[in-house]
Specification:
This protein has about 170 residues and is an alpha+beta fold. It has two domains: about 1-30; about 35-170, Sandwich (Jelly Rolls), CATH 2.60.120. Helices cover about 20% and strands about 50% of the residues. The chain is built from one helix and ten strands; from the N terminus they run αββββββββββ. A six-stranded antiparallel β-sheet has the order 2-1-4-9-6-7, with no helix packed on it. The protein has a four-stranded antiparallel β-sheet with strand order 3-10-5-8, with no helix packed on it. The longest helix has 30 residues, at about 1-30.
Length: about 170
């Protein structure tokens, strides 16, 4: 009797874990963008205000701040958001999956203010400070295939600029 109960409880636990895992996978899939795009998550005072898929990071907001626009979602709903993070003191984190042919790549960032770029979790550029628009670059050898590029950015005050690109520079 006790053994049958343990077996049934074990099956129930396994079923619950599988169902939770499937639900989490569905939520995770909604939170990602297509390969070749970034998922931008915009924060104010430590709270996510909105998120959106973006084909590239190439923003020169000047003394204006980013607005959610019609393609953005907030952190609680999967629908349009008219929220804004304001013009100063905000953060953005972009995560994207990109296909690389393999070889040496130069990652180039222009940022006003702080920026940190990682590829597959390895820090490539780390310039986390208040500064005027400054260009930074670093080389990284990549294997052929898909890699995850993360960019973290913060805007302190005044002008806001963030641009990220990469170029293959030989093999």
């Amino acid at each position: 009797m006790k053994k049958a109960f343990i077996v049934r409880a074990s099956f129930a636990l396994i079923a619950a874990v599988l169902l939770i895992g499937l639900a989490a996978s569905a939520v995770w899939a909604q939170a990602q963008c297509a390969v070749g795009q970034f998922r931008g998550r915009y924060f104010k005072d430590g709270k996510q205000v909105f998120a959106r898929c973006e084909p590239r990071i190439d923003f020169d907001w000047g003394t204006l701040g980013p607005e959610a626009g019609s393609s953005a979602t907030d952190d609680k709903a999967d629908g349009p958001s008219s929220r804004t993070v304001g013009v100063d003191n905000f953060r953005v984190r972009w995560t994207g999956r990109f296909h690389f042919n393999g070889g040496n790549y130069r990652f180039i960032v222009v940022a006003d203010d702080g920026v940190k770029l990682t590829v597959d979790g390895a820090v490539i550029i780390d310039q986390w400070r208040s500064q005027s628009a400054t260009e930074f670059s670093a080389m990284k050898r990549l294997t052929p295939g898909e890699h995850v590029v993360d960019v973290e950015y913060f805007e302190d005050k005044d002008d806001a600029t963030i641009k990220v690109r990469w170029v293959r520079s030989g093999s």
